[in-house]
Amino acid sequence: MSRLLRVELRRLRARRLVRWASAGTLVLAALSVLLAYTQSLPPSQLQVEQAEHAYEQQLDDWEQNGDEYVAQCESDQEVARETDPAADYGCDDMAPRLEWFLSETPTFDGDEESWPAPGATTVTQLAPLLLLFALVVGVSFLTAEISSGAIGLWLTFEPRRQRVYWSKAAAAALGVLPVVVLAYLVMAGGAYGAYAINGQLGAVTAETWTRLAGVGGRAVLAAALVAATGAALGVLLKNAAGALGLVVVWVAVVETVVTLAVQDAQVWLVRTNVAAWVQGGTTVWVQECTTDATGTTCQGVERVVTQAQGGLYLLAVAAVLSLVAAVVFRRRDVS
Predict the structure, then answer these.
(1) In angstroms, rounded to a whole number, what is the distance separating the alpha carbons of residues 321 and 319?
(2) How far, in Å, CA of 48 to CA of 29, rounded?
(3) Dihedral sign, CA of 271, 306, 324, 257?
């Protein structure tokens, strides 16, 4: 098996599409560094002057009409408290401030809930995009072998089909790892450098790097599973465009329709669980409605999708599809 695996890894590296996909992934990583640089730029002198001008206009208006605005706010707040005693319109904090008119410049490490998001959070959010490379490589590796007839010729040298399939799936899973690791290092390290150049690092600590290392490690494991899943889809559908199209339609269309029809199903969507695993957990929002004598009231409720659920979900999908593909490959005519 190890001999077969080494051969398959060499065949994988020799494919032109794999080389182009690798280059495209590294370009994507470089673009994320450019994004980090532009996001971390402080406001320009022109932006500061425009903000100061807008602030002065608002301040003049406040000095003339501020009392009226506060009175109206307090009146509206009293009306709102008839149905919601906790209603707070912030009437005692309405005076304009200069920072309202300037876009806040994010730091590399900071509050994950802030906007714009800190640089480390942006890296975490972009990391799942690296899995597209793994999917393309996994699908194309098997479909190219099948469509060209090369796999039929290969089976004359190694007739044990199970060994052939699993060696190819393993080669796809292992072959994507160096590129994913390198691309993630470019994304994380480049973002840090971009924020450092602009003096916007914030309170970067060992915990920051531990968190980013965890994201990178999970992205690498996810890439291996996605590549193996892509290989399975390649065997089952025998056509790269069909397999990749199925994934795109499923994630972009089917899962969107499912979300609109059954909001509680969001926790079982592929994209949700991919994000949960790579990012260390995620949340989705669903609308819960109640009906009483006054009518129907709906409010958003946050649902947590854990990292463990995301990992088990990806493992289950990869295992099931791989086993089905192995059975099909064993029985199907591939000549």
Answers:
(1) 6
(2) 31
(3) negative
Which residue do the tokens 């889809």 mark?
A: 233
Cross-strand pairs, 329: none
* DSSP characters over 215-259: HHHHHHHHHHHHHHHHHHHHHHH--HHHHHHHHHHIIIIIHHHHH
Do the Cβ atoms of 128 and 223 come closer than 8 Å? Answer: no
DSSP-derived 3-state class of residue 122: helix
d(CA 250, CA 205): 40
- Enumerate the domain spans of the chain: 2-42+105-331, 52-101
H-assigned helices in 40-95:
45-81
Q: Dump pLDDT digits (tens) for 97-124.
A: 877 777 777 888 876 666 777 888 889 9
The answer to whether residues 95 and 55 touch, using CB atoms and an 8 Å cutoff, is no
Distance CA 177, CA 182 (A): 8
254 with 268: CB under 8 angstroms?
no
24-70 pLDDT per residue, tens: 999 999 999 999 998 888 877 777 778 778 878 888 888 888 788 88
Coil vs helix vs strand at 41 = coil
Distance CA 305, CA 269 (A): 11
Find out whether 35 and 51 touch, Cβ atoms under 8 Å: no
Nearest to 77 by CA among 89, 68, 66, 86: 89
Q: How many residues does the chain have?
A: 335
CA distance 320 to 298: 38
Residue position matching structure tokens 């406040």: 62
Contacts of 2 (CB under 8 A, 6+ apart): none
pTM for the model: 0.83
Q: Which two tokens stand for residue 167?
A: 């060696």
CB contact at 8 A, 313 and 273: yes
For residue 293, give the 3-state DSSP assignment. Answer: coil
